[in-house]
Design goal:
Length: about 675
């Protein structure tokens, strides 16, 4: 019964020495009208005619149910408490349940929770009444009309205004369920922050229970001496020095594990948390990671899988997606409109993948909807603030849940500002974005979303914003409806004092077109030294949204020879042309000659210089071994290029002629430095 997602669900707050998984087969009952009661089910007036696999939403094939548009469902299973837990409190943990859950144990109500993306726990000790066995019953309400509740990319009836980019709903229990045992006085929270000098960890430890004010703490950073303290209230704040500090970075994701032991008259509780020594700051319109400039090479990740919806079928699925993003050259994953399973963040921490984290959205605006949105912020920070991989918090996205009208509505501006200020009060250590992509109210980073189906159209929009000093950009808000959005809803001048980030872009209707756009639109962004990075849309396909570099099964799609890793890299070559179409970037003269310049954009810590070389290949094709050798030879030499860090290099002229008898070919252009290829791109030429 526990072979489904069997790993411990909460590695950031590890009490795995005393836990029992409740994942696996549960009894399931459909309640379409949502009007049945626990008494009806206990009395046998309702049938338990099927089973469901937890933790998969009931719409998914992985759940074994596969039902759509069910507004209410009931779960039931037996409980077995290990004998060695005698004398301790037994707590049921739910990673996430969409949308509202009510729980009974042995027929006794033990609690309820609203909010489909945040965790909750319920002490079920009294309901068990000393027994080692029992039963648990969970009622889950998942309204079909989700517009005024938190639901992110889940589809609603009536539909959201963004229904064209929404997916199948994910209702019911969709993250792990488990039991833990702990004393009556226990460790309720461990917040870990690197101190300013990155040579110590500040630990804030919260206790709860009957004797929390008289507990003794022993706190140990792995490999360091323990620190002991007597607690006089319910919270202790300690500084934990690190004798030989090792910074956490994508290149060296070193983690420090911190074990907290709380002793009280109720017994001993032990929890292990972890974090990394790293800083993320803003200086002079730049993002700074560990004292060095951070350029975001990001990709949008919706967190969907083809048979299991918003739940990863296995823990390895998280690792796969991180590795695929890295293989494509991305250094940041933006988890879009979803508080992802903590296991994903754990793997990002240990593998060194940076993360932009954000909560799910509502669909329409009301004071109640705004309150529901804000209710996610404190649990988000409490659960995830220790993760060094998270370098950016997001809040609202494109005014979803704000009725597309932040500019003209002071009430909506107030809601955005309130959410931002709440988030910053809970975690001032990370940059935060208030309303990603559209008009900002109060933000640390000015980000914007621009979509266009061609590199030429895209370049004009970007140039308008970054080079020509305009503070508006075009946004499509419906079929045939395009409006100009100001970057800032208030305080226009603030856009020139904060890091600029393009956090969504893309174009093309086929995989070849999208690969072509990914290359040329990204290279266009690299022309602008002031930019702090980008987020490509997106990593893989989801249902009808076929915008991924990979398909829904995570297989690489045909990109027409546009290799993402060649574009999403530290050093790139930018040809000075306005490409026309896939396979036809530029038209040669009647003699087959093309002339254009190339520049180098380099984001390393030291200047770079090398030889620019070129070789002909087949249209839309990749390099053969022979072509790679030709690029490294003097025969293909074009010129010498150089660039300083984050300063666009001077132009180098390229003048080549198509081989005799060839009407179309791909010109591969490389930068050779120190005997190796450090950058490569291509231009498709036709007569």
């Amino acid at each position: 019964m526990t072979s489904v997602r069997p790993e411990y669900p909460r590695p950031h707050f590890d009490r795995s020495h005393s836990w029992s998984s409740l994942n696996g087969q549960w009894d399931f009952h459909r309640d379409p009208e949502g009007n049945e009661s626990s008494a009806d089910l206990a009395a046998g007036q309702s049938e338990w005619s099927e089973q469901i696999v937890v933790p998969f939403a009931w719409e998914t094939g992985a759940s074994g149910v596969g039902v759509n548009w069910l507004a209410c469902g009931w779960y039931r299973r037996s409980l077995a408490v290990p004998a060695e837990w005698a004398g301790q409190r037994v707590v049921a943990h739910f990673g996430a349940v969409h949308h509202a859950a009510t729980v009974w144990v042995n027929g006794m109500p033990v609690g309820e929770h609203e909010g489909g993306y945040t965790p909750f726990e319920l002490d079920i000790t009294d309901a068990l009444d000393g027994a080692l066995t029992g039963s648990i019953l969970v009622r889950v309400s998942a309204p079909l009309d989700k517009r005024y509740i938190v639901h992110g990319k889940q589809r609603s009836i009536p539909r959201d205004d963004y229904d064209n980019c929404a997916f199948t709903p994910s209702s019911g229990i969709w993250q792990s369920v488990w039991l833990e045992a702990r004393p009556a006085t226990y460790i309720a929270g461990v917040r870990l922050d690197a101190v300013a000098g990155l040579d110590a960890i500040e630990a804030r430890i919260d206790l709860a229970g009957t004797h929390s004010g008289e507990a003794q703490l022993r706190v140990t950073v792995e490999g360091e001496p323990s620190v002991e303290v007597n607690v006089t209230g319910s919270t202790a704040v300690l500084t934990l020095p690190i004798s030989t500090p090792k910074m956490w970075s994508p290149q060296n994701p070193h983690l420090y594990f911190v074990t907290v032991v709380a002793s009280s008259p109720d017994g001993v509780d032990t929890v292990t948390a972890y974090t990394g020594l790293r800083s993320i700051d803003i200086e002079d319109e730049k993002l700074i990671l560990n004292g060095e400039r951070l350029y975001v090479r990001g990709v949008l990740d919706q967190g969907y899988w083809p048979r299991s919806g918003i739940t990863a079928a296995t823990d390895d699925d998280f690792v796969t997606d991180i590795e695929l993003a890295r293989e494509a050259g991305f250094t940041v994953i933006r988890k879009h409109l979803k508080l992802e399973d903590p296991r994903f963040l754990y793997h990002a921490d240990r593998l060194g993948m940076l993360v932009w984290a954000e909560p799910a959205s509502t669909g329409r605006f009301s004071p109640e909807a705004a309150v529901r949105f804000e209710a996610q912020i404190e649990p988000m920070v409490r659960r995830d603030a220790n993760h060094p991989s998270i370098v950016m918090w997001g809040l609202y996205n494109e005014e979803w849940g704000l009725d597309w009208d932040v500019i003209n509505d002071p009430a909506k501006q107030a809601v955005v500002r309130r959410a931002f200020e709440l988030l910053k009060s809970l975690d001032p250590t990370r940059p935060a974005v208030d309303n990603s992509g559209w008009s900002h109210v109060e933000t640390d980073v000015v980000d914007w979303h621009i979509y266009d189906e061609t590199p030429a159209g895209w370049a004009a929009k970007v140039r308008n914003l970054l080079a020509e000093g305009n503070n508006t950009f075009p946004v499509g808000i419906g079929p045939g409806i395009v409006v100009d959005k100001p970057v800032m809803a208030v305080g226009v001048q603030a856009a020139d004092t904060k890091p600029n980030l393009n956090s969504e872009f893309g174009g093309g209707f086929t995989s070849v077109e999208r690969g072509w756009n990914q290359r040329w639109q990204t290279l266009e962004l690299r022309r602008y030294d002031r930019l702090s990075g980008y987020v490509w849309t997106e990593l893989y396909d989801v249902e009808h949204e076929m915008a991924g570099l990979y398909d829904a099964e995570r297989a690489l799609k045909d990109s027409g020879g546009s290799i993402a890793a060649d574009t999403n890299t530290e050093t790139v070559i930018i040809p000075g042309i306005e490409p026309l179409a896939p396979g036809k970037d530029v038209v040669a003269s009647s003699s087959g000659t093309v002339d254009f310049e190339v520049r180098i954009s380099h984001h390393g810590s030291q200047p770079i210089a090398g030889d620019v070389s070129a070789a002909w290949g087949v249209p839309l094709g990749q390099l053969s071994d022979e072509q790679a050798l030709e690029l490294a030879s003097e025969a293909s030499f074009v010129g010498i290029a150089s660039a300083r860090p984050y300063v666009l290099g001077e132009p180098v002229q390229v003048s080549v002629t198509l081989p005799e008898g060839i009407s179309a070919a791909r010109l591969h252009i490389a930068l050779i430095s120190g005997g190796r290829t450090v950058a490569i791109t291509a231009v498709d030429v036709v007569r």
